């Protein structure tokens, strides 16, 4: 089914790190969108998994997202190269992916997840690169290989499914 389901999704946040974000094009807006995803995930029971690339060199996760979920430290650009990452994603649920950089860690992780036959949905307005053309090329490549490209609001409203959802009003405040 192409629609996302809160009961069958994991939100994966790649490398939103303190020393990296100032160099990312429109970094503050990306963090704000990731915060909305994390808040919606919390309200709707969607698990969150985070990664940090070389945390000794790039620092920890930005304060706005710190503590949103367990963190897998990695040196490989592809998070799937870390056994703990794949173990944390056991099963065959949907992966809602966002982070930095689109053309490096996010891209390699998404391609590996697709190779593992996982359904990957990439949130474009919560994914960035230092240069916009790098992000654009990554999104086009990932779409060609089977990743769904969506926005934060698409994810949130698909997770909700209905204005009759008991948490609708709380979640709606995130997008207004």
Structure characteristics:
176 residues, alpha/beta, Rossmann fold, six-stranded parallel β-sheet, 7 helices, 20% strand, hydrolase activity, Isochorismatase-like_sf
Explain the overall architecture.
It is a single chain. The protein has 176 residues and is of the alpha/beta class. It has one domain (6-175): Isochorismatase-like (Rossmann fold, 3-Layer(aba) Sandwich), CATH 3.40.50.850. The protein is 41% helix and 20% strand. It is built from seven helices and six strands; from the N terminus they run βαβαβαβαβαβαα. It has helices spanning 27-44, 55-58, 83-88, 102-115, 132-144, 152-160, 168-175; strands spanning 9-14, 48-53, 71-74, 94-100, 120-128, 148-150. It has a six-stranded parallel sheet, sandwiched between helices. Helix 2 (55-58) links the parallel strand 2 and strand 3. Helix 1 packs parallel to helix 6, helix 1 (27-44) packs antiparallel against helix 7 (168-175) and helix 4 runs parallel beside helix 5. 43% of the residues are buried. The model has no long low-confidence stretch (mean pLDDT 96). Residues 10-153 form the Isochorismatase-like domain. GO terms for molecular function: hydrolase activity. InterPro entries: Isochorismatase-like_dom, Isochorismatase-like_sf, Isochorismatase_domain. Keywords: Hydrolase. This is Hydrolase.
